[in-house]
Design brief:
This protein is an alpha+beta fold and 611 residues long. It is built from nine helices and 36 strands. It folds into four domains: 5-137, Jelly Rolls, CATH 2.60.120; 141-242, Immunoglobulin-like; 259-527, Glycosidases (TIM Barrel, Alpha-Beta Barrel); 533-608, Immunoglobulins (Immunoglobulin-like). Helix content is 16%, strand content 39%. Helix 3 (322-336) packs parallel to helix 5 (381-387) and helix 8 (468-488) packs parallel to helix 9. One of its GO terms (biological process) is carbohydrate metabolic process.
């Protein structure tokens, strides 16, 4: 049913908010008139929503950021402190109901990017961000249903957890069924689980074996098969969708036991459209940075075959409570575990203050870099303890710069420090580069940006002279060269930072309005699963290298053109190969065009050799 809501900024205290004035607001949403408020109260009134045959009514909130309390008719019914986890509140039996929901800004370190200056204030308004609805059900009913895929050496199963609500003592059977969605091959399964409980709620967990399982794969590796789980109790039923996939990391990322090279982008304000644009950029992974993923975005990852790297909402320096972190990590694992796209969890993002901004590429600069990195050392023990609470997917406890021994490194040569040519030194000196959680450069989205959260203008001006065109051209150059070099170094997980700006300028490949910057095409080209590149676009003896990120050998036609002199060869490469097919002697000013095709898809690269 549709609800009308009113809102007001309030001062947080222990009592139910009683503002002097309310104003109409849209829920779900982030009312920008409350930007900067520490707490916002939301009120709605409704008649008893139960119709004939319904004994239960629930208020279901999704994305209640960040610490939330719910009152009905003056009584406190629920408190909640994990906005990525749905909140379901049983409503009392009354003819008229007045519901008040108070959302507070984070009261601890777990606000993620929304507790930093990387997002505009109007994206951080305490509120009900993703969903708000009333659900009515008969008695007894299945109040909630979740499903966790499990792959075993001898097959697969789905662990089904159903929460049953009843007003009377109950001794019955819960009927569970599992059926392929759409045209997925394989048969369905059905079973029954006993429910015996006194009035109240009872949780039932049951493992359903899957016969002839059809697996879920990233879009560049296979089909996105999914299954619908149905739980029926008396006249009530509840459904959930899941898929069968297993992700591990051990000297490389594997999905369902097979190697996958992950090519990704960071989302700082995730939407379904961003997932679709990531696929168009040849990405097979998105990293939702230091925040929860909206349900529709996680569903889009499932549908489009995009792996989901889900961060805990924890970003920036300063200590945090590891017990609180472990609790949130367990709940995050449970919330996203039903999604077959769920692939990794990052714990602590950007845990030290920037220490190398403005350093160049000279000998003394590198000495300063090493000294500052040593001085910025980070104790990862708390982050590692939190990571142990995640059971279903690989974890990256520390995501940060080289020099602090991160599990996933963030690399910004040519932006925060030095030039792109410093990449090799950084990787070799600090032993990083296999898992890259962020790389790239920023650019202007419009001339004279007024609002640019997360954008370092002084860093930009060190590298760029000129307006929007010069800015975006420089960004594209950095993105292209770093992408090519990291792929040549056989990075197993590679994530560009980031897909879309949060304001008028930023690290995005797209503007805040989703207009493409040149860097978007540069990344899409660099992320071609089979691509051909120059080892270095500078004068000298340079290799022509095939990058092949597919699991099977391929017969390829390779062509290169240097200043109009064209040559073509046939070449066979093995799975996940990095193969040199020719060495060219290049001079400044040379124009080089490279192309490779497997007969179905053509990838090209053009270079003008510079000093």
């Amino acid at each position: 049913m549709s609800l009308e809501w009113r809102g007001a900024a309030v001062a947080p205290d222990d009592e139910m908010p009683t503002p002097e004035e309310w104003e109409p607001v849209t829920v779900p949403g982030r009312p920008d008139q409350f930007a900067g408020a520490d707490a916002v109260a939301y009120e709605t009134t409704l008649s008893d929503p139960r119709s004939a045959g319904d004994e239960h009514a629930f208020l279901v909130l999704d994305g209640a950021f960040a610490h939330t309390r719910v009152w009905c008719d003056g009584d406190l019914l629920a408190s909640h402190d994990a906005y990525f986890e749905p909140l379901q509140v049983a409503l009392p039996d009354a003819e008229e109901l007045r519901v008040v929901v108070e959302c507070r800004a984070p009261e601890d370190r777990f606000g993620g990017l929304h507790a930093t200056d990387r997002l505009p204030d109007d994206r951080c308004v305490p509120g009900i961000w993703w969903g708000a609805e009333i659900a009515t059900r008969p008695d007894p009913c299945v109040r909630d249903l979740s499903a966790r895929p499990r792959l075993h050496d001898d097959g697969a199963s789905v662990e089904v957890t159903a929460t049953v609500a009843t007003d009377e003592s109950l001794d019955d059977r819960l009927t569970l069924s599992l059926r392929p969605e759409g045209d997925v091959r394989g048969g369905g399964m059905m079973d029954r689980a006993r429910v015996s409980t006194d009035p109240g709620t009872e949780t039932v967990t049951y493992a359903m074996d899957v016969r002839d399982p059809s697996l879920w794969w990233p879009h560049d590796r296979g089909e996105q098969s999914r299954y619908v789980v149905r739980a029926k109790l008396g006249d009530d039923e509840h459904t959930a969708t899941t898929g069968l996939a297993s992700v591990e990391y051990d000297d490389g990322l594997t999905v369902n036991g097979e190697t996958v090279r992950a090519r990704g982008v960071t989302l700082v304000d995730p939407t379904v459209a961003d997932v679709e644009r990531a696929v168009r950029a040849n990405a097979n992974l998105v990293r939702v940075r230091a925040q929860g993923t909206p349900p529709d975005v996680a569903e889009a990852c499932d549908e489009h075959g995009v792996l989901l790297w889900q961060d805990l909402p924890l970003s920036g320096p300063d200590e945090f409570d590891p017990e609180r972190g472990s609790d949130l990590a367990r709940r995050l694992d449970e919330t996203y575990g039903r999604h077959p796209s769920f692939a990794a969890v990052g714990v602590h993002d950007d845990p030290v203050s920037p220490y190398a901004d403005g350093l160049g590429s000279g000998f003394l600069d590198r000495l300063r870099f090493r000294f500052r990195a040593w001085r910025a050392g980070y104790d990862a023990s708390d982050a590692e303890a939190v990571a142990e609470a995640v059971e279903s997917v690989p974890t990256f406890p520390v995501v940060g710069p080289p020099g602090i021994d991160p599990d996933a490194v963030t690399l910004y040569p040519g932006w925060r420090y030095g030039s792109v040519d410093d990449l090799e030194w950084l990787c070799e000196r600090f032993g990083v580069g296999e898992i890259v959680g962020g790389f790239g450069a920023g650019s202007l989205g419009r001339a004279d940006p007024e609002a640019a959260p997360g954008f370092d203008r002084s860093c930009h001006d060190r590298h760029v002279e000129g307006g929007v065109d010069a800015s975006q051209t420089y960004q594209a150059t950095v993105v292209r060269r770093v992408t090519e070099r990291l792929r040549q170094r056989e990075a197993t997980v590679l994530v560009a930072d980031s897909l879309r700006d949060a304001g008028d300028a930023g690290m995005g490949l797209l503007t805040v309005d989703r207009d493409e910057k040149p860097a978007y095409d540069a990344l899409a080209n660099g992320y071609e699963p089979t691509q051909i590149v120059l080892s270095d676009p500078r004068p000298g003896e340079r290799e022509v290298v095939i990058l092949h990120d597919r699991p099977r050998r391929a017969d390829l036609t390779v062509e290169w053109d240097r200043n109009g002199d064209r040559e073509q060869v046939e070449h066979t490469v093995g799975p996940f190969a990095r193969v040199t097919v020719e060495t060219l002697s290049l001079s400044a000013g040379d124009d080089v065009t490279l192309a490779v095709t497997d007969g179905q898809r053509v990838a090209t690269n053009e270079y003008t050799i510079s000093e």
